[in-house]
């Protein structure tokens, strides 16, 4: 497969990222497969103007994709619900939802987020209001929606991205109608954040509810 050309220094950095991920996924993926996912992840991020910390962000994105692929193929058995939040730019709503669910779930849910047309960076007002809750989004970055992220999810929650998200049988799809933080100040984004927080808490209660014992 042909990939986006990179300079020699970046090529070495991406090769090292592939080495680290191959070690992390030892026994799950061949080195060649990991390298291909790393290169493809770099291509995907390069298409959305990621210009800084490219090797690090590529490695983080490739790690998410590798895990999703492994879950989908059954080579990693997930013992936790997997939730994917999708909005258009992955710069506001889906980022806040993912951070809030990860925070409240404390590891009991696997959380991902993506955008159908990712922005260049996270909305600064979103970073500001999430910091008020002690949640740091300053190191996060918008990620493109991938097929494997949808396939690996048990629940897919869309937020204003229309029909861009592929539909696979066996998934639970929810569409949350929320205002878009794009172009809004902190006061307005704070209201959206709190709306998302309430929905996330409700979702978490559903996902972690213990099944009732019919024989009790």
TrEMBL record:
GO biological process terms held by the UniProt record: response to arsenic-containing substance
- Gene3D superfamilies hit by this protein: 3.40.50.2300, Corynebacterium glutamicum thioredoxin-dependent arsenate reductase, N-terminal domain (1.10.8.1060)
**From which domain of life does this come?**
Bacteria
SUPFAM superfamilies linked = Phosphotyrosine protein phosphatases I
Entry-linked Pfam families? LMWPc, Phosphatase-like_N
The answer to keyword Metal-binding applying to this record is: no
Cited InterPro entries = Phosphatase-like_N, Ptyr_pPase, Ptyr_pPase_sf
Domain Phosphotyrosine protein phosphatase I per the UniProt entry, residue ranges: 81-206
Alphabetized UniProt keyword annotations: Arsenical resistance
- Quote the NCBIfam families the UniProt record gives: MSMEG_6209_Nter (NF046112)
**Could you identify this protein by its name?**
Arsenate reductase ArsC
Species of provenance: Nocardioides euryhalodurans
